[in-house]
Each structure stands twice: as structure tokens, then as C-alpha cells.
Amino acid sequence: MTAAFPFKHILITGGAGFVGSHLALAFRESFENLKISILDNLVRRGSELNLQVLLENDLEFYHGDIRCREDFDKIPPFDLMIDCSAEPSVQAGLDGKPDHLIQNNLNGTLNCLEMAHRNNAAFIFLSTSRVYPITPLAHLPFNVKETRFAFADSNEVTGWSAQGISEDFTLQGARSFYGASKLSGELMLQEYAYTYNMKAIINRCGILAGSRQMGKVDQGVITLWMARHLYEKKLSYIGFGGEGKQVRDILHPKDLFFLLLKQLEKVSDWNGQVYNVGGGNEISLSLRELTDYCQNITGKKVNISAVPETSPVDIPLYISDSRKAQQEFQWMPKYKNHDILEEIYQWMSAHKDQLRAYF
User: In which residue ranges of the chain is pLDDT below 70?
Assistant: First the structure.
């Protein structure tokens, strides 16, 4: 597809990662003459596989680290930055060593903001639902159903409804080092937007899932679950009694891309606004329901043990209330649970031997 686009050169940080690579390829498919550059340190396992696909699609790659401001110097002037770079583990720091996460997610984000400012570039920040604090989320009333937890009916908490968590939910309380580092990045972005009139916008994403993600227990669990079924390896329901009823909504990166296109049509209005972005109730699942999907798609069953103890940074239930983004940008996710999981399975099956070592 070829269409008018208000920018000439996009820089995507973390562009060889799961989300960054999906966005880069989607922009390339949609805008043939758009210059797209990727900055990535290739530290995360699997990024080298994504890089091969990116280079095959005429994308400029720069090996660099957002923590090193000098690594931006090699990149030609750009007019839009999409910051997909992050240490995404909510478990980071529980071992007493949060330095890497803070250096990457806070200092690295500051470098990205400063380089966007110097280039007079607009800025899209991919934040996270994890900015919302653990205790208020964990204490929301919910019902225990056969296969999942489900929010109970109540209108007593600001920012929470049957539709999930909205942008008005409280930010008071601890949220994990990961969530705190991303919230700090949001606050600095809003200072840049206010002080320098930077055109900037924040998307607080829930779980993003699709092909080419090297999932782990603490990040990318949807892909990990499918991989463990495909390769017939053990799994565990961890926390909340070990029953696997904890729930998250999910979103395909292509649906995130569709939202970005809508947002880019109104870039003149950007001033650091925040949007919750996710699949909502309709595109959500518990671990038990995820198991059923994986069993049905792969035709395999694996041993799943129960670990009743709950991590101090885990929550039983999170659903994104994305109505603000839906209403302002006339956007709705298209990929459903089965679409996302079937895509992951097809990708893994096509590269089964190559991917075995990653899972």
C-alpha cells in the first residue's frame, strides 16, 4: 500500500525486538518510500533472527545501545522516534540487582527523548500497564469462575469498571522496578512535551503477543506456553493457589500498528497524552484457557504443575479499558485469541528445529 505520510524518516529503538520488528515491517509494507531505521543492541535472544527479516525488507540497521548517547550520532536526522526499547521483565530487581533495568528503562529513555528533541522529532512511547500499582489492583473485587478470575460488579473505584482499568486508575503505590522505570519515562516525556513543545504520545500496552517473540516466564508468556506444548516440555501454574485462573488481555502488534496510524493522523494534537491499549475483555484469557487453546491447536498435552505461592509483583487480573483510544481514534483490535495463537503456532511449526534451542 502507498499512502501520504507526514514523516520522512522513522527511527525505531529496540527495532529488532518482537514489537519493534513487527512495527518496522508493518510501516515498510504500508509506505514504500518511507525511510525506516532500526537501533538495537541485539542483546535479547532471538533478535538476531528478526534482524535477518528486517534486512531483507530494506530497513537500515544500526547496532547501538540507547544507554550510550553516542550511538545515536551515526543515525541520519529523523523526524519520528518510536521507542520500543525496554528491559521488560516485571521480575527484574527482585534479586537485589535493579541496575540494568534502571539504566535501560530510565536513563536510556532519557537519551531517546533528548535525541528526539535535538532532531525536532515527534515521539511515540510504548509504556506498560505495569505502571499501575500492585496493591490497589490486587484488592479489586473479583469472582472465581470455573476457568478464570472475573471482575465483580462495582462502581466504587475510580478508573475501574467491568471494562477494566482506565487511565484514571490510581498511580499511588509500588508497582515493581519495571513499572516504576516506565512511569518515570512517561513523566520525563511529558516534561519534554511541555517544555519543548515536543509532539509526544504514550501508549500503555498490556500483553502483546504474536509470532517472532522469544517468550519467557516473566515476559512473553503466551508464546512460551505455545512453545512448551509444541516441544512437549513442562509448565507450571504459578501463584494464586496454582490453579491458572489469573487473567490478562492480549493484543497483536499489528493491531497496535493500526492504532499508531490513527494516532499519527492527529500528531498536531499530541502533548503527552496517555492511552491504555489492549484487547479488553473480548481478547483476554487465563492460563487455564491458554492451555486449552494450545492443546487444541497443537494436539498435545504437557504436564503442568501447581506452584501456589504468588510473586510479590504479580496480580490476579488485569484487563485494559481502551475506550479512550477507541473513541478518539475510531480504533478496535481485529486479532482475536485464536488468531494470535494460531499465528504463533504456524510460525513455530515452520521453524521448529531452528527455534527449539530458544525454548
Answer: 1-3
pLDDT tens digits for 304-315?
Answer: 999 999 999 999
In a domain, 269, yes or no: yes
CA distance 163 to 324: 12
Q: Is residue 69 part of a domain?
A: yes
Q: Which residue in the block uniquely carries the three cell numbers 547496532?
A: 63
Domain that holds residue 308: 9-358
In a domain, 1, yes or no: no
Q: What is the pLDDT of residue 315?
A: 97
C-alpha cell at 167: 487511565
Query: Which amino acid, residue 47?
Result: S
Q: Which residue has the cell 497483536?
A: 252
User: pLDDT tens for residues 137-171?
Assistant: 999 999 999 999 999 987 789 999 999 999 999 99
Rg (Cα) of the chain, in Å, rounded? 20
Instruction: Give the model confidence (pLDDT) of 47-76 as tens digits.
Output: 999 999 999 999 999 999 999 999 999 999
The number of distinct structural domains making up the chain is 1
| CATH classification at residue 13 | 3.40.50.720
**32 phi, psi to nearest 5 deg:** -60, -35
Question: What Å distances lie between residue 336 and 95, 204, 243, 281, CA to CA?
Answer: 36, 20, 24, 11
**CA-closest candidate to residue 3, choices 32, 45, 26:** 32
Whether 159 is covered by a domain: the verdict is yes
Dihedral class, residue 232 (left if φ above 0, else alpha if ψ from -120 to 50, else beta): left
Q: Specify the pLDDT at position 2.
A: 42
For 195-250, give the DSSP string.
HH---EEEEEE-EE--TT---BTTB-HHHHHHHHHHTT--EEEESGGGS---EEEE
Axis-axis angle for helices 287-298, 221-230 (nearest 10): 40
Nearest of 79, 60, 93 to residue 10 by alpha carbon: 79
